[in-house]
Design brief:
This protein has 218 residues and is of the alpha+beta class. It has a single domain, classed as Alpha-Beta Complex (Sufe protein. Chain: A). The protein is 46% helix and 15% strand. The protein has eight helices and seven strands. Strands 2-6-5-4-7 form a five-stranded mixed sheet. Strands 1-3 form a two-stranded antiparallel sheet. Strand 5 and strand 6 form a beta hairpin. The protein is globular and about 90 Å long. About 3% of the residues have low confidence.
Amino acid sequence: MPKSEVRNLYMDVPDRHVIRTQDVYQTQTEIGVRQYSDTLLHVVANYQNSGIPEGCNAEGMAGKSKHGEIACQIYAVINPKTRTIDHIGFRSRGCLSITACASQICVMAHGLTIQRALTITPDDIKQSLDGVPYDKEDTPVFAVEALHAAIGDFLLSEGGLELQQKEAPCDVDGMNCLLCEHCSLRNLRMDWIVEHREDADKVKSSTTAKNATEKSEK
């Protein structure tokens, strides 16, 4: 057999960076990581905050499924008295970037009041990670929206979304909302709006009936 036809048994195989754990499932196989910052890779290699913390009373999710699933879930323990995030964890599916962004927002939000946590932006996450690849710009958005959804979940259990609407209102026509094909806060928010509209209609009907009765008695 000619030398050129001999199979090269010692051919180098490209590095494939894949994470498979109970809470982090990398659906996109990374071949090479030159597009990622050292800071981002360090976060991925050393995250300690995945999973659901004990006593979790708030959870939210955001992501997409077209052209490959990328999503994260945020789980938090929020103190009802102080409204601080005492414990927080995440689950993620997709790429190294979504894992880093989900882990990093947990680090950034831990110990904050929910009012302060609502002010964290995708740019804050990108800056803390020394950037994300240009084709992963949606991953910081998903992390932020998942945190918003978790806080919204807690606020609904406390009575309403007024604080959320004040500090980080949903911009249904904005880019962040359009990027999120799946967002648990979207469904929670719509249910809350419908419920409050029904309550408002009941109050309005009751008031109208009362006024009509008083008018007829006169």
